[in-house]
Amino acid sequence: MKKAKPNRSVCPKLDRPELHRRELLGRGIHGLLLLGCSMQIAQGNALGGIQDALGATDSIPKHEGKGVGYFAPRKLDMKFGMKFKSNENFCTNLFATIAFPTDWPEQKVQVKQSNIPPNAQWQYRDLPPNAPTSARQLVMSIPAMQPNGELDLIFEIEIEKSFITAPEDTSIYQIPKKIPKELNWFMGNSPMIDAGASDIKRIAKSIKDTKPQTAWEHIEKIYDWVRENIEYINGPIRNTREAMKDKRGDCEEMTGIFIALCRASNVPARCVWIPNHCYPEFYLEDDEGTGHWFPCQVAGDRQFGQMPEYRPILQKGDRFKVPEHNAPQHYLSEFFRCTQRPVGNRDPEVEPVQDLGPLKDEIADLQSQLPTQIKP
Hints:
It is a single chain. Helix content is 21%, strand content 32%. The protein is an alpha+beta fold. The strands form 4 sheets. The chain has a 6-stranded antiparallel beta sheet with strand order 1-2-17-5-8-7, with no helix packed on it. β12 (269-274) and β13 form a beta hairpin. α4 packs across α7 and α5 (215-229) runs antiparallel to α7 (251-264). The longest helix has 15 residues, at 215-229. It is globular and about 65 Å long.
């Protein structure tokens, strides 16, 4: 341990490298683990509660103006937070952050109850600062913990999540002629995504040279190129430049390559992170100049412009700046630090809580029905 002051030291941070983060997110499940409607129906509605949702009047997609539609909303109880366990030492200045769900058009979040010890403090940190929120962190601090103590900071929340359906008329969309300032976060290079690589620019140009009739068709050609040319295979997370060499990757690499090709085509794009998976969104403007985000599933069932998915959105984006790190972050993984005496061999323990409630068992049930070769 590195000594910060005489007779004191800084605990190892729960600052997981990308490979360890993958253990939290999973390895990207081939096939829309939850929720291609065809998969659900074919498997006898393996996902509990979907039968009622699809049979209700709100299962009809609702389009509010132009853009995507939302349908089959479902409310789910979940828990997010952290559990702390001190070692034989007296720990002080405990500080931790985790990704925390926030509202999106397809997701509404309500905190039902918080179980916070009296000596703990917490607040939300919305990112990026001074711009539309694309991620939220729960920031927690505890002044001190007794040796061999335990503290739980748990939020019980209700998430209402809706399926997304593609717009009714895709011919009206166009690539933005001028990128709005707030969308600069979703252009250019990001950690693990190299939109300026020569092969990315070459492929983007070759797709443009096919002269797609509409912007929607243009992005769909990018989508098809990724699905047809990148082989889905699990492995350690890699930069898109590396993944392009052997044309292999899982949900993160395939998503990253799609995003890189979109950005190289002057189309804003971003990564959407949910438990055990990620997928991209791209941005187009309608015939009145209003911008819209559209999701797609590059690793799994073909879902372009739509997303039948109940897992909660943890964050949207792939370039985050936080004070705990000098460099921009591809994903906001959990972070922890504390101060303690340099005594003993056991470090304090911190366990992120990401309890999906009934959805967790439904995912496990559906996973058990997947062929062995495509399980994560």
